[in-house]
Description:
The protein is built from eight helices and eleven strands. With 272 residues, the protein is α+β, with helices and mostly antiparallel strands. The chain has two domains: 3-113 and 180-269; 117-171, no CATH class.
Amino acid sequence: MTAFADRALRELSDPAALGALLLPDGDAGRVRTMLAATYDLSAARIDQVTAVHVRTVSLQRPLFPVGRQDGSWSRLVPSFTRGEFTLTRPAPADPLWIDLLAGIDVTVVTEVDPSGAESVLSRAFDSFTTLDEFRARFTFFDLDAFLAEHRISTVEELRDAFDYVVTEIRLRRPGTFDADDPANRHTLPVTVAAVIADPFDLAAGLRATRLVREAAKGFTGPAPGGLPVEATEAYATAVVVAADGLPGGLTATDVEQLYGKEGVVSLFVPTT
């Protein structure tokens, strides 16, 4: 391990220092990247990230990829019997090393989609007198193909052939969102798995985080409480980079944007 890696481990082992890197000067970009990588937020909008609390920090944690083996067993005498089994166990390979594993609580202000239907109304549609009237009511429907398929040529035949029902569903409308309402404040737990890229290599850092995420596919992420969100990944991943060790022509913003598009957080630590 290099001098920078040693320094990064020492600095990030401090929960306060790690929290400051994740939420620098109130900039929630890194935290939002973590949340989007670990949760399905389609039913909840993160309005604000108000705080980050680092609960635990663990250094140099091994992650053993698991392998799956499928097989069958059969017996012919005295009677035919067949069984199938699946075995999931650590694969016979060296572990992946997570340089830093941190448990984090993120406090957010969230607007939740109320979902559901306010009303459902179904009624018969049998009073149409022309084909154009029917076509105008069911604009999503290929009437000409339907008529040809069922050999219908007149509006009377169409009306007598089937029962037609129109259903109108009115969705619930969300109330006025109040960011100051304590009911809209929630805590989302996130586990961050960070790898140190030293010497710096964009591709190597991305590959390392990809391996961690793939190896952790079978793990269960933390269950959120009080929000209609689902954990999609066990870990959010991060790459630790030397703040003053980037090659010429590459800025910290470039690195953060590239990794961010892949759902990976960038953490910059000075070398001195």
